[in-house]
Specification:
alpha+beta, 91 residues, 3-stranded antiparallel beta sheet, 2 helices, 4-stranded mixed beta sheet, globular
Length: 91
């Protein structure tokens, strides 16, 4: 996972790297965007959390994360425009 660890539950997303760790509740997130290389989770005060897709251990883990994100966070308008391309790439 490129030195990063990701875990997610029904309540929160946890991830950490060499120099950081983060834990955010789904209710704190306002919108999400998914493109070909990452998920962006938008939080208040014009900030976002960037989760590169390379941190997922498998396509199945990424699929489960995507399903959970869709059930917990509003999809951004930009994400809706590119989602068909993303799903084609992921198979």
């Amino acid at each position: 996972m490129d030195g990063m660890e990701l875990r997610f539950t029904e309540g929160k997303v946890f991830w950490r790297g060499k120099d950081f760790k983060s834990e955010v509740e789904w209710t704190y997130m306002k919108e999400y965007l998914e493109d070909l290389v990452a998920f962006m989770l938008f939080i208040p005060h014009n900030r976002y959390l960037l989760l590169p897709k390379r941190i997922f251990e498998s396509k199945d883990q990424m699929r489960k994360f995507r399903e959970l994100v869709k059930s917990k966070v509003k999809e951004s308008v930009a994400s809706k425009r590119i989602s068909k391309e993303v799903l084609k790439q992921d198979g």
